[in-house]
Amino acid sequence: MTASRICYVIGTTAGGTGRHVEMLARGCAQRRLAVNVLGPASARGLFPDVTFDAVDIAHRPRPPRDVASVLRLRRLLARHAPDVVHAHGQRAGALSVLALAGTRRPATVVTVHNAAPPGAVAGAVYRALERLTARRADAVLCVSPDLADRMRRAGARDVSLAVVPAPPAVSPSAGATGRARADIGAGGRPVVLAVGRLAPQKGFDVLIEAMTILARRDPAPVLVIAGDGPLASQLADRSRAAGTDVRFLGQRADVPALLAAADVVAVPSRWEGQPLIVQEALRAGRPLVASRAGGIPRLTGEDAALLVPPGDPAALASAVDALLDDHVRARALGTAALARARALPSESEAVDAAIAVYDRLLIAADAVRSAGP
Question: What is the pLDDT of residues 208-220, one digit of tens each?
Fold first, then answer.
């Protein structure tokens, strides 16, 4: 038996997880599989081409509403009767396996996209969700090797790495790059670019502190941050207090042009899985400084980026400084990035990999049923 009906379940998402699920849903629909997506109403706009049912799955525990969400998931999954349920994130995974308890359940896959949150209480809740999804999901996909090890320790038996590709590479026009440079307004000074959600995980506070160290350069580089999020005003206040030259561009649709306009791309995250901006920087052949955290080293290797410890502004500043001082080294890093990018997966390969997992689980379940008692 091969998969023909897939239900994706997602929680509250504002970043790469939603884009990843949209890519899988669209790819499966293009392969003529029946696709349904279940998730918060706020995510409906991400899925214009497939059936979407609203289910209130928040990013924090809310027991009464979570019970209601489990019951709604149970009704919707019974109605759609999928061959495979593929949940994304620990919260969506836990609610999905609870909704399927006691039913003739479909094959169940959970993709783990993020590390455990900080804090004792949040960490304890997360570990409980890990154990639940690890022991009840038929397969667990993880976006980085450290998450895969963590899920194995939590009891998962079938664990592998998820394939999370960036969108296809786009070469910006000269006009688009010129407009990006004009928006940045660096006036001939070096440009350090960071792209991502303005949230604690991304480490932009560390990057702003690193820029205070780099302010001694003549000319001092300009830091450009493209993105939006809950820390927007706090980071702006921090940069003003430090006296650093930071340009907050907000959410941008012209990331390829911004990459072309940058001298160095910085990814100072405290943790990442397979971040899209790292893949985009590699495909653009840009000199990259990134944290040695999560799945980043697996994407870049040791030759396509300068990797620094997360949370270390001095090391981050030193790596950026080195590339701004040594143009030959920066060009060599960009060449290595392009070579590394040729091994990155495409969206089509990511969809094929997911479907291969679905089919493998269904074939194994058929074999068990055929063997009988």
Answer: 999 999 999 999 9
Report pLDDT digits (tens) over 146-166. Answer: 999 999 999 999 999 999 998
Residues 234 and 140 in one domain: no
Examine the domain organization and report whether 27 and 73 are in the same domain: yes
| CA separation for the pair 323, 187 (Å, rounded) | 19
**333, 323 contact by CB (below 8 A):** yes
| SS3 per-residue string spanning 115-179 | CCCCCHHHHHHHHHHHHHHHHHCCEEEECCHHHHHHHHHCCCCCEEECCCCCCCCCCCCHHHHHH
Other C-beta atoms closer than 10 Å to the C-beta of 239 total 23
Same domain, 191 and 231: yes
pTM for this structure? 0.90
Pairing state between β 51-54 and 139-142: unpaired
Q: Do the bridges between strand 5-10 and strand 84-88 make them parallel or antiparallel, or are there none, so unpaired?
A: parallel
CB 91 within 8 A of CB 125: no
Where residue 228 sits, what CATH number does that domain have?
A: 3.40.50.2000
